[in-house]
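Bump. Still looking for N-acetyltransferase C-alpha cells.
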Amino acid sequence: MITLKGENIYLRALEPEDLEFIHTIENDEAIWEISNTITPYSRYLIKQYLEQAYKDIFEVKQLRLVISSYKDESLGMIDLFDFDFKNGRAGVGILVKEAGNRGKGYGKEALKLLIDYSFSHLGLHQLYCNISEENKASITLFTNQGFKKIGLKKDWIHNNGTYKNEYLFQLINN
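Sorry for the wait, here they are.
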C-alpha cells in the first residue's frame, strides 16, 4: 500500500491556506543559498503558484509537499524537482522550517516517505540531491537513507562573496 503517512508526520499537497507559510520560507534569506534564490517573492506570485499546484508532476516536472504534524502544524517542505520520466529520475530538496523542529526525525521520516513514493508509485529509478559540503546535517540525513556521494562540484555556490563546494548524492533503486 502506498502512503504518505508516517508515524509522526505526513506529507500533503499544497493548499491555498499555505500562502503565508510558503511566503515566509521563500523570503527567508538564511535559506536562499540552498534554494538558489536571489530575490524576494511576493504574496501575489506565491498565490499564482498555489493556483497551479494542482497540476500533475508529469506536466510541471515538480512535486512540492508540505511536511505536516498530526496536529496539522506545517513543519517544512519536501520537493521532487527536475522530474525526468524518460530517464526515471528526479532531484530531492527538503527543509524543516524552524530550527527547534530539526533533529527530531521529521526530515528523516519525510525523506523515507518520499523515497518510497518515488520508487513504488512514480516508478523512478533514481533520486539525486545537491548538498553544500558545509551542510553536515543534510549530508547525514541523505547518507543515512542510502544516498551515495558521487561527485564534488568545486566552487559551485557563490554566497556572500565566497565560493563553496557542493556534493552530488544519488540513490538508485535496485
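The mean pLDDT is 89.

Edit: fixed formatting.
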